Amino acid sequence: MYYEILNNLKYTGTYVYNRSSAKDYNHRRNSHRHKPEEEIIRIANGCPAIISQETFQKAAERRKSASAVGKLGAKHFYLCSGMVRCGECGKKMSGGKRYGKYHFHTYCCTAHRSDCCNFKEIDSEKLDHYVIALLERELFCEASMKKQIRHLNQCISRHNRKLPAWRKALDEQPDKLNLEYIQMQSSKEKTIEICEQINTLESQRIAFESSRNNLQELEAVGYADFCGLIDSFFALQEELFRFRTFIRDYIKSITVYRESVVFSLDCGFGLLDGVIREFTAKRIDFKTPSQRM
After folding, report:
1. Backbone phi, psi, residue 211, to 5°
2. Is 283 helix (H, G, I), strand (E, B) or coil?
3. Distances (CA, A) of 103 to 96, 124, 128, 256, 282
4. Per-residue model confidence as pLDDT tens digits over 155-185
5. 137, 144 in Cβ contact below 8 A?
6. What is the CA radius of gyration of the chain?
7. pTM to 2 decimals?
């Protein structure tokens, strides 16, 4: 509960919606299972801010620092900690050690202990090694990076071509909002519902103005702009905590299903959202020594 409060962007004035996935076949909504990042909508100044962005960032840094202190004492390092989710219930899969005939490390669904999910665990070391090999093969080698940059430039070109239409659509919205806002303000009786609607309209007006200002044309990039990342990728592997922070910028999600594991890589290099590539591996490739599949 407290983590969600400290991690909630709405307290900084950013309104986030369209995050939770649709209901399952039993018509139950699972708030832990999120939609792809490109479908989640964030509107800056979309709601009243009660803390500054600076305070929110300081809290995030304190949280990160406290987490790192606790993990330094751990005997085993889990590279993909915090990135792996269960495809059955949507909750995170955490690292742990198994004893008995075999001693090995796993990622296991956090709902498994409460009997809410009977999903099998996977071998953490196999998954960690796979992630490193995947990133090296698909992103952090010269040939792959050049190929991805060509694709990124195509996405940038499409983004720039769509800008006039997006700007036109955003230019039309404030007129409608202003008309509704004036009608609400001129209402003789200001009920609680009307006041709430006025605040909502004001937030939407600010959000549209912010969105319009953020629609900027992007310039094409070249291999020389990002080739230094390849050196960082290999150099940081000697510093595990820094390496994990580094790869989190490129791994959007790792979702474990019963028959497969899906890896979503962010290939936009921080310039453009939604440039996602997905790779699927067989679930059997990550079985633990004690599992028979």
Report:
1. -65, -40
2. helix
3. 11, 12, 17, 22, 23
4. 999 988 988 887 777 666 666 666 666 666 6
5. yes
6. 23
7. 0.64
Give the strand pairing for 251-256 and 84-86. Answer: parallel
Residue 20 CA to residue 29 CA, distance in Å, equals: 8
SS (H, E, C) 56-88: HHHHHHHHHHHHHHHHHCCCCCCCCCCCEEECC
Report the candidate in 129, 130, 78 with the shortest Cα–Cα distance to residue 105: 78
Question: Cα angle at 265 between 276 and 86, to 5 degrees?
Answer: 110
Q: Which residue has the tokens 């190929």?
A: 147
Q: How far is CA 56 from CA 50, 59, 250, in A?
A: 10, 5, 23
In angstroms, the CA 243 to CA 283 distance is: 25
With beta carbons less than 8 A apart as the criterion, state whether 267 and 277 touch: yes
Give per-residue pLDDT as tens, 184-224: 666 656 666 666 766 776 676 666 666 666 677 889 999 99
Phi, psi of 282 (to 5 degrees): -75, 135
- Scan for tokens 């964030």, then name that residue: 42
| Alpha carbons 33 and 92: distance in angstroms, whole number | 9
Q: Is 269 left (phi over 0), alpha (psi -120 to 50) or beta?
A: left
